[in-house]
Design a protein that fits this description.
By secondary structure, the chain is mainly alpha-helical. Helices cover 88% and strands 0% of the residues. It has 3 helices and no strands. The relative contact order is 0.20.
């Protein structure tokens, strides 16, 4: 089950990088402070998912068995949210 959670985390990282790419491209055209905020916000989510990926790979034996399903649900919902944001952003 945790392998699926790691896969969702990698997907999240790719989706966030895609968002950051669009936001930087938009910032070069618009020069808006709002776009800087979106870049910073996305970067924080990128750090969150990168740290989760690192800790889930290196410290998984220390996680309690009952937490794995909750982590999977959280990562799945986060993937849906970033996927929705990507669809809206790229249109």
């Amino acid at each position: 089950m945790i392998n699926l959670s790691i896969i969702f985390s990698v997907i999240n990282i790719l989706l966030i990088v895609s968002l950051i790419y669009v936001y930087i491209k938009n910032y070069m055209k618009i020069r808006s402070t709002f776009t800087i905020g979106l870049i910073f916000f996305s970067f924080l989510f990128l750090m969150h998912n990168a740290l989760y990926l690192y800790f889930s790979i290196t410290m998984m034996p220390y996680y309690a068995d009952g937490t794995q399903s909750f982590i999977l649900i959280f990562n799945f919902l986060q993937t849906l949210a970033f996927l929705t944001l990507n669809i809206v952003t790229w249109k």
